[in-house]
């Protein structure tokens, strides 16, 4: 049987803690330290650590830079459609 490429993981993120956990998993998959990931994303390492820990008052511009820097795409989907897709 031929190998099939892995399917992308799509997560429903509904809290700062869930976003931080997703960023942490993405950073770990890239095998980056906090400092290396922060440098790659153009943010301070303290901000990066706080974001991974679910900082509730994180700046949007920096948060988006981190997401994109670790390979996560912020995607806008109507809530009703997302809830259907995730069976909620």
Number of domains: 1
Radius of gyration using CA atoms only: 14 Å
Order of helices and strands: HHHHH
DSSP strand tally: 0
Q: Give the DSSP E fraction (strand runs of 2 or more residues).
A: under 5%
- Globular, elongated, flat, extended or rod-shaped: what is the shape? globular
Q: What ranges have pLDDT less than 50 throughout 5 or more consecutive residues?
A: none
Largest sheet: none
| Percent range of helical residues | 40-55%
Which homologous superfamily in CATH is the superfamily?
lambda repressor-like DNA-binding domains
What is the terminal separation in angstroms? 34 Å
CATH topology: 434 Repressor (Amino-terminal Domain)
Give me the CATH architecture, please: Orthogonal Bundle
* Number of H- or I-type helical stretches: 5
> What is the CATH domain class?
Mainly Alpha
Structural class: mainly alpha
Compute the average pLDDT: 90
Structure, described:
The chain is mainly alpha-helical. The chain has a single domain (16-85), classed as 434 Repressor (Amino-terminal Domain). The chain has helices spanning 16-29, 34-41, 45-52, 60-69, 79-85. The longest helix is centred in the N-terminal third of the chain and has 14 residues, at 16-29. It starts with 15 loop residues before the first helix and ends with a helix. The mean pLDDT is 90.
